[in-house]
Adenylate/guanylate cyclase domain-containing protein (Micromonospora thermarum), 945 residues
Amino acid sequence: MSPRIHLPAGWVTFVFTDIEGSTRLAQLLGPDYRPVLREHRRLLRRTIAATEGAELLTEGDSFFLAFGDASAALTACLTAQRALASHDWPTQEAVPRVRMGLHTGWAEPRDGEYASPEVHRAARVAAAAHGGQVLCSAATARHADPLPSGASLLDLGLHRLRGFDDRERLFQLVAPGLERQFPRPRTADAVAHNLPTQVTSFVGRQNECAELRRLVEGHRLVTVLGAGGAGKTRLAVELASDLVESYPDGVWFVDIATVTDPGLVAFAIAAVLGLRPEPGRPMVDTLVEYAAARQMLVLLDTCDAQPAASAEVISRLLAGGMGVRVLATSRESFGVPGEVVWRIPPLSVDPPPDGAESDAVALLLDRTAAARGGRQPDPAESADLRRVVQRLDGLPLAIELAAARLRVLSVGQLAERLDDVLGTLDAGRDDPEPPPADRGWMGNQQDTVDLVAAAAGMSPPSPATRAVQRSATERHLTMQATVTWSYRTLGPRAARLLRWLAVFAGPVDLPTVEWLLEDDPLDPLSVLVDKSMVLAEPHASGSTYRMLDPIRAYAARRLVDAGEEQAARDRHVAWSAHALQRAHLGPDGRPATLSLYALDPLAGELRAALRWCATGGSARAGLELAGGLDQWWRERGLAREGRLWLSRLYGRIAETGERIPEAELAAAYHMHSLHAGADGEFAEELRFSQRAEEAARQAGDAGLLARVLAGRAAPLVDMGQFAEAERVCREVIDWAHRQDVVGDALFAVFSLAELLWCRGALDEAAELLGAARPVEAARPLERGRRSVDMLLGLVALARGDLIAAHEHLLVALRSRMAHGFHGRACDTLHAIAVRCAAGGDPLTAARLFGAAQATRASLRCTPGIYGAYWAQRQAELRAVLGDTAFDDAYAVGAELSLEEAAAVALGVEHPDLAADSTRFATGAANPAPRQPTGTPTPTPHTEHA
């Protein structure tokens, strides 16, 4: 520096400049670097001379300047940046990117230099800048009045400069001809992260947070996998927020959803870390070198937007240094060495043991209160809240969207409308493009990525690319947009499989998928599982596959759009019929004793198939499916649902004119009659019984006619015509013998035995039932009910033979529970309660009465012909115990599940084990039969087949 240069004193503005990446630029240009460096110095010195700045030090590519006027200093920097940008450099790679920093402080020169901490602060401000950027401190901003023409200062907030304990507010010079978007300043902020600020509370997920934290602490690459809207990002950000203090070099969030070019993935990460391209060097190399010596966590969100490029960058990062860990969210895994894949489960829809609400309900409650201005849902809405979250499979995004609908709907109304999941959740949302001023953090990040990429010579995004970027940031505005984001990445086979799987209501196994497609589904199924559009759930017997309900609704829409609905749903109906047939067969392929438990898992699929049969498919096929569920509907307390499906199928027949054989109509009408009787609709029961008889006679099938006529006694008993019912039963049995179809008249035998029991003809009833035992045992559809043993147990009770009653009733209860006949098991529990009362165990009897009645009420079953008998025995028991003791024991029983009550009944001590049993005493005769205390009066409704 020349001694003649005047150094300002007082309020001095210090300026530091240097070339960003000068070492790399020198290596790239070689001998050509010196001319570039000379030209850079010439341009800066010309600017300094024009603004009367003092050049204190020039070393290599750096300048240290002092100005007596802050406005002049800013003007010099602006002019210099414009000159550098407009200069005709030899090549694009040779353009020097100069960063500049200014700070104003009180200083006095001594011996031609400044010994002041203000100089060091100015140097730190410059070190925080990026190439092409001009940063200044708050002091410079205050003193720079006026600003250069057309210029303004952008407040970048408070930052902690390296070497200084306080925080400095930094400003960026903004003016025409200068770049505007830069990564965050390179400062030593105390909070080393850029995690997005959440505007809503984080609800639930305590167990998931703990499990994911354990994985992140133990592995360097953890990928959170899940369907769109499953809450991957929210959970990952929540966990990362708790880990900030564990990583000295920061926790950095990068949204890959806005990256539309695979080559920009490294740039996106670099932009967040404050890195700029180095001339002639791949961005990923710069990124790896920077990260190699640091301990930091990089959270890469929505990597499925660029899976291959993300995998490559992640592999390079992990190989470059041991201090870097990556937590990624995606809809598909990377498949790179060292990756730990963790699939995020839906929010729990089942309440925890402590009685609190499930996570899914808690989220819906929280968001509903927000949607309703802070007003919590009414406690009466609790059941409907649970219905909603179960219908939405606990998917967080779907629950958030559902809560928004509760501004205009009650929870009950919302639950009823969820048959159209997408239409209900997406109502009123048109996916508008957000205005530029409201693009938020992701939009700013993308601008930075674009500029960093442009600095490396990459083309700016096209309008089409910008549209894709917008769709990425808006992918969670609607459920349809969320699923479309994944669907558009599928190949033809995987997309077709997704569409066709929409016809299933629940999980399916691999053979079922293969049966549906008539092709090997492993490859497309693997794609769907990898992309989290289908969930694979491993079991000991093999994996099952299912879609979350919002995804199924989307796939069903695509199925219609593709013109494939008719074929796919007809195929599903055929599969349902085949599954029903298998449920009636044993491992050897021969008819096996019917177990209603085998039908329980099929109920959802059969309902879906019936819905199609009643609206767009074959009503005849629907009647076949309904027939397979005949006993299941009544034993599960769903007789009304069965009647509704049959009515819909009748309407479908009238609509299409489909020809239905008379035999099949007769079977449907007979089933309808039984459902109506179980539902207490006795006029409808008789009407359909008559229709069934007429159709059966036209069909000319003796066995079918016998089954229909055998059911005629039921409506007669229900209407109080007991003598007529007995006459009909005897006629049907005699006719069946003549036609050699005795097995088909078995229901008439049981009805007659009940009527004989009611009027005290116990010997005839026992003889009739003894003859019926081999017939029942030969019929797989009836033998699991053990009606013969149930009725023989009642006969034994009426005779006072507790030993025979005990043995028959326990056989009946074991079989009925083993084969899923829950409604009939309630009758058996009542009978065992009577046996306990007669055997001197009144408290157990009261408990079993309470359990049986509670289960029967839950199944909405009428008490049947036994109703008066149970009531009479309960009244006698109440008189023995007293009201208080009876009610207490009855209430204890009412709290038992059917399985628990059956265990109590089966644990009742056999009469032979009682201390006073004389059955096997020497010379003892069997005790004389005790006559019933009263003849049971039959009341509607009889036990139906």
User: Anything to note?
Assistant: The first strand starts at residue 10 and ends at 19. The radius of gyration is 41 Å. Residues 33-51 form the longest helix (19 residues).
